[in-house]
């Protein structure tokens, strides 16, 4: 659903987002040799908040990195239509991919949520 630009999911997303909207998508993945968490805004030009969230995650022992157009391309959300729409209208998009180690540990999951909440207020 998240990758289909003609879906009801996309239509609702477009209806609800504005230039002042922060959009967060929390996903899971499994990739050897990738960090625990990869953050992205769906482009090769990540915004500063993604780096600050990654720093907060690293502070609790999670290897978090930010997609920069080259590293970790399979989870960079570059084909995500919600990311494209949100960036196009001036909103902020936060795409977070989590390895099973993080998803399966309630303490780490809560730490990830808290890292985002602390940055986004």
Polypeptide structure, described:
- This protein has five helices and four strands, in the order αββαβαβαα.
- It has a single domain (8-120), classed as Aminopeptidase (3-Layer(aba) Sandwich), CATH 3.40.630.100.
- α2 (48-59) runs antiparallel to α5 (106-120).
- Helices cover 40% and strands 17% of the residues.
- The protein is globular.
- β2, α2 (48-59) and β3 form a beta-alpha-beta unit.
- The mean pLDDT is 94.
- It has a four-stranded mixed β-sheet with strand order 1-4-2-3, sandwiched between helices.
- With 121 residues, the chain is an alpha/beta fold.
- It has helices spanning 8-16, 48-59, 81-88, 100-103, 106-120, and strands at residues 22-28, 37-40, 64-66, 92-98.
How would the blueprint of this fold be written?
Layout: H1 8-16, E1 22-28, E2 37-40, H2 48-59, E3 64-66, H3 81-88, E4 92-98, H4 100-103, H5 106-120
Parallel strand pairs: 1-4, 2-3
Antiparallel strand pairs: 2-4
Short structural summary:
This protein has helices spanning 8-16, 48-59, 81-88, 100-103, 106-120; strands spanning 22-28, 37-40, 64-66, 92-98. With 121 residues, it is an alpha/beta fold. The model has no long low-confidence stretch (mean pLDDT 94).
